[in-house]
Amino acid sequence: MLRAALLLLLLALAAYYGEATVKCVDPSISQPDYCCNGIVANLEYSDTCECNRDWNGKECTCNGIVLKNACHSCMVHLPGSNKWDLDNFAESELFGNCKDCVDRCREDIKKGMCVDFQAKFFQEHYTTGEVYESLCTHDALKKKLFSKTTPLEIKRALYAKPVMDKKGFKDTRFDWKIPGFR
């Protein structure tokens, strides 16, 4: 009986500490104002450690850093990154490369330090289908490039300004005015 009660207590504590939420109604004094837009969580910062004070160190590292940026490097394979000569690579091949990269990335994450958090994170953050279907899009790339929380070094690794190819053609479909780029 005591063993069952102890087990229930441990499960309740795990559920309490495992459910991190940004508290916008009656937030603690230590929660930064930018965590909320009125009474709803600010999605730009909802996965940050500052806005989820109930996360422990490992949850903060995994949810706030590792998983939040997981597989985003695969977007470099998109035609919109302007890193590929489209005379040598078909756009469908580049999208396929992005999908393969995301698949490999997900497998690597399942073996790493965030194994306990990855399934829930991907389920909650990629609700419309497979992860690659959300990440391997030009909209996702553009959102990442224009995000205030993406470091400039990451933006530069994912994107290059379009240049003329050897035939003198400049593809301007992805000529975005990204903050910090010259």
Keywords, separated by commas or semicolons:
182 residues, mainly alpha, 2 domains, globular
Short description:
With 182 residues, the protein is mostly helical.
Alpha carbon gyration radius: 20 Å
Q: Structural class of the helices, strands and pairings? A: mainly alpha
- Mean pLDDT metric: 87
- Report the principal-axis shape: globular
Tell me the strand percentage band: under 5%
Q: How far is the first residue's CA from the last residue's CA?
A: 68 Å
User: Which segments are poorly predicted (pLDDT under 50) over 5 or more consecutive residues?
Assistant: 1-20
Q: How many domains?
A: 2
The number of helices is 7
Biggest sheet architecture = 2 strands, antiparallel
Q: How much helix, percentage-wise, in residues?
A: 40-55%
Overview of this protein structure:
With 182 residues, the chain is mainly alpha-helical. It folds into 2 domains: 1-55, no CATH class; 56-182, no CATH class. Helix content is 43%, strand content 2%. It has a two-stranded antiparallel ribbon with strand order 1-2. The chain is globular and about 60 Å long. The termini are far apart.
